[in-house]
């Protein structure tokens, strides 16, 4: 087992392949590169490491070889396509949205949940706010947490929209633009662990 601090498992796998003196076939390298670019938001996420960037270059060399189906791609163009392929909210059940990537945290005596979903555009969020709020309320009650949040992340633009269920008054101090529908726009925020969570914990621990 390998445990290491990188932004994507694809990075570790590509390193092992190269260490063995081998290279991955174009098709496999393309799949691995897609996973890496998705995990790191095309190398823009705060969780991206220098090793991820080196791995992206390595996998690009293997994937975009002459004669392959990806030969006309670049890392930038391929990454844009990978991110744009993120599923929309219209095709997903709201309960699946709020439970698909959800983590529970504790700050003192407060337990809370933050879920995250990736979309290719935040323009579609508004029509789904009521259904997502209902799903978030249900999540909060079934998980027996004090409050719950949903982070809808635009992987192309690099920003997020935040939805809340039973948010405490302390979260009124979040440094993100309030919107009329009781959501907030978090410009430039894409990482739950590195960007949103520290701000939330900072307010709860005051």
UniProtKB/TrEMBL annotation:
Coiled coil: none annotated. GO terms for cellular component: cytoplasm. GO terms for molecular function: inorganic diphosphate phosphatase activity. Residues 79-204 form the DHHA2 domain. Keywords: Hydrolase. Gene3D superfamilies: DHHA2 domain, inorganic pyrophosphatase (n-terminal core). SMART domains: DHHA2 (SM01131). Its EC number is 3.6.1.1. This is Manganese-dependent inorganic pyrophosphatase. It comes from bioreactor metagenome. The gene is ppaC_9.
């Amino acid at each position: 087992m390998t445990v290491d601090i990188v932004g994507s498992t694809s990075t570790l796998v590509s390193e092992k392949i190269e260490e063995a003196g081998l290279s991955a076939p174009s098709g496999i390298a393309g799949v691995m590169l897609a996973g890496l670019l998705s995990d790191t938001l095309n190398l823009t996420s705060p969780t991206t490491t220098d090793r991820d960037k080196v791995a992206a270059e390595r996998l690009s060399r293997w994937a975009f070889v002459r004669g392959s189906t990806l030969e006309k791609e670049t890392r930038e163009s391929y990454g844009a396509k990978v991110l744009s392929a993120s599923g929309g909210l219209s095709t997903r059940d709201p309960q699946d949205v709020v439970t698909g990537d959800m983590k529970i945290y504790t700050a003192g005596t407060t337990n809370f949940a933050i879920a995250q979903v990736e979309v290719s555009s935040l323009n579609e969020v508004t029509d789904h706010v009521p259904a997502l709020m209902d799903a978030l309320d249900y999540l909060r009650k079934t998980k027996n947490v004090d409050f719950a949040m949903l982070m809808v992340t635009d992987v192309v633009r690099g920003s997020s929209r935040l939805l809340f269920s039973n948010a405490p008054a302390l979260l009124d101090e979040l440094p993100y633009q309030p919107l009329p529908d009781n959501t907030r726009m978090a410009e430039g925020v894409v990482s739950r662990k590195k960007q949103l969570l520290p701000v939330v914990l900072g307010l709860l621990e005051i």
